[in-house]
Write a structure and sequence with these properties.
Helix content is 34%, strand content 20%. With 257 residues, it is of the alpha/beta class. The protein has one domain: Aldolase class I (TIM Barrel, Alpha-Beta Barrel), CATH 3.20.20. The protein has a 9-stranded mixed beta sheet with strand order 1-2-3-4-5-6-7-8-9. The longest helix has 14 residues. It binds iron/sulfur cluster (SF4).
Length: 257
């Protein structure tokens, strides 16, 4: 792991906070739209282990400018020992800790909550959580619906431990793009986790691993208005629905207008 896997200062990865972002390599998924495929060396079966001491010194160097560290990837929980050590270090520097996860490693996520290693968990639900696993298999190359469903149930434990929790779906034309799919995901979130914050993110086709499969006919991302229309399908099920676009950042979505 080198410093190319670290963004020293970001104001967009944790709403309202300046954060250092650390990319931990390795992921059990192979999402067609993965934006970090170059960094993750998607074609390889192994990934570079994190250089924990180098990352700690980078966090320490930035600590006067930031209030948080966000761990992402890859799948941040894949290198759990490194994540634990780094999260403890960030905490010792007086920094908040956020983790972005695809929800695959349910037991590790539970452990992180019980050990109070994190202040925020951002969990992806990438496709409808159908019991046959087909939508996950199509988008992520792995049937992870059951594991993600189990991970969503950890929201209760987060609430008991005063850990913030949000769920995200990244959407592209032709991938997770129908009102029915958004309603299905929102219903699963409501049923398994509860009325949690739900963010629908604008995916950028030109950064995708398999561009041709996620671009739709136009090859462009959803516009803000298209995203708002899609997101309103979730507002009848969840009370805090937001969209996130490159142009306008994070915005709340109301059920009408
Ligand atoms: S879960 Fe995230 S890092 Fe892993 S392949 Fe999918 S988009 Fe890429």
């Amino acid at each position: 792991m080198t410093t190319k896997n670290i963004i020293p200062l970001s104001t967009v990865d944790w709403y309202g906070r300046a954060a250092t972002v650390v990319f931990l390599m390795g992921c059990p998924f192979r999402c067609t739209y993965c934006q970090n495929h170059a960094l993750l060396e998607m074609g390889k079966l192994t990934s570079e282990p994190a250089d924990v001491e180098a990352i700690k010194s980078e966090i320490a160097k930035n600590s006067l400018l930031i209030s948080a560290v966000v761990f992402t990837g890859g799948e941040a929980f894949q290198q759990f020992d490194a994540l634990r050590s780094l999260a403890e270090f960030a905490c010792s520097q007086g920094l908040m800790v956020g983790v972005e996860t695809n929800g695959y490693y349910t037991d590790r996520i539970r452990q992180a909550i019980e050990e109070r290693l994190v202040d925020l968990i951002c969990m992806d639900v990438k496709a409808p959580l159908e019991p046959n696993g087909a939508p996950y298999l199509k988008i992520c190359g792995i049937d992870a619906a059951h594991r993600v469903s189990e991970s969503l149930k950890l929201y209760k434990l987060c609430r008991e431990n005063k850990i913030d929790f949000e769920v995200r779906t990244t959407v592209f034309p032709d991938i997770t793009d129908s009102p029915q799919e958004i309603r299905s995901i929102a219903s699963s979130i409501r049923e398994l986790a509860g009325d949690v914050r739900y963010i629908i993110q604008q995916g950028i086709p030109e950064h995708a691993w398999k561009k041709a499969e996620v671009s739709g006919t136009s090859g462009t991302p959803y516009t803000r208005d298209e995203l708002l229309t899609l997101a309103r399908n979730a507002t009848v099920i969840l009370s805090d629905v937001r969209i996130r676009t490159k142009e306008f950042g994070e915005e709340c979505v109301s059920a009408s207008h």
